[in-house]
Amino acid sequence: MKIGCITISDRANAGIYEDLSGPEIKRLLRAVFGAEAQFVSAIVPDEIPQIAGKLCEFADREHCDLIVTTGGTGISARDVTPEATREILEKELPGFGEIMRMRSFAKVPTAILSRATAGTRGTSLIVNLPGKPSAVAECLGILAHALREGIAHLHGADPHTKPVSTA
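^ that's the sequence the OP posted. Answer follows.
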């Protein structure tokens, strides 16, 4: 299992503040996929070409089974993660964003401002998460089962009878 983790933040990319969401993603996904999960990580600015380029690199060259982004899903002028993601997707999976917004809304009414999306590129499942560590934790908890099943389907496995093999 190879997982790409991309933090999208002008300030973290410039070293102005420490990336807290990227490490939280790794911690939580290790709990979902086990200690054998391998990670590749990057921090990129809120720029469509850099985000799309890193997504393509992780999907096409690194052959990540799962690519998770954090940040850039809001409505400010610099929030462009969903646009960059849609630019490189082969199939969009809007249910991921819908369920994150629906479940998060019960706790945080402004969750409806999130524009997070998900989809596939080749055999990679790509999911946009919010930038706040607590929101990352909440959303990954909601998505864990769908992540496992989606990856199994992308690799041609029956998720109900055999483990995901990415060899």
